[in-house]
Amino acid sequence: MIRIFKYLxxxxxxxxxxxxxxxxxxxxxxxxxxxxxxxITMLVQTPGSAMSDIxxxxxxxxxxxxxxxxxxxxxxxxxxxxxxxxxxxxxSLLFNKVEAFSMEEINRFSTDSLIxxxxxxxxxxxxxxxxxxxxxxxxxxxxxxxxxxxxxKGFEWTLTTGAAVVILIVMIGFLMIxxxxxxxxxxxxxxxxxxxTRENLTGLRVVRAYNAEDYQEKRFEQANDELxxxxxxxxxxxxxxxxxxxMIMSGLSLSIYxxxxxxxxxxxxxxxLTMFSNMxxxxxxxxxxx
Length: 290
Known about the structure:
By secondary structure, this protein is mostly helical. The chain is built from 10 helices and no strands.
């Protein structure tokens, strides 16, 4: 996969670096919002605070959100542009490569396999580039940055967040063990589906001449059922991931506030407001980590 990135043109690399800049800006703005949330919480709970200070902090928080939205739109635009241009170039290179094959080389590959490589596989690469620039690069930056901001704000909260991350990693790893072999098998089943369909279309006159429609329908149904069953298995397995993540995030929020209630209750009167503010900010950063 990494080897094909050498076909990226300088213009596409430039757009990728610009996207990386806006990804970092988006992460910074996302992680800056909880700071203003903490400031607003302090101002609301502090007697004698001016309403103008609350409005200023709220306005800065809204500007951070707007800036994050604009950055996300720019990253999405460049990601789609890079992916579409790169996939177009890959299809052209693959087509020219197949055209240059000798008869001996062509016999090494099945036609249905070459069709899948030229269409479905390149589409998967296009999706990977689009998702990679928007999510795969952003996720570790967000996680590491958020961890550095919450470090030292509370041992109990940090331990709870670490436990949630471990549970999430174990759940995803356990899920991948069952799903990845099915994803690999789907390539072979797609090739088989293309082969059966192509044979039926190219030999349509022969099929009708020998009245073999029922036989061809059974072959197609078998190939279609195998591919459908595999796709349903992978889709259902991956569908479990979002509810699991939502459950872990909700459980983590509940744990942070539950632990925070005990800590605030046991703190000195002068420290209660600071502890409450830290709890609100920590909860936001913990969600970013997850």
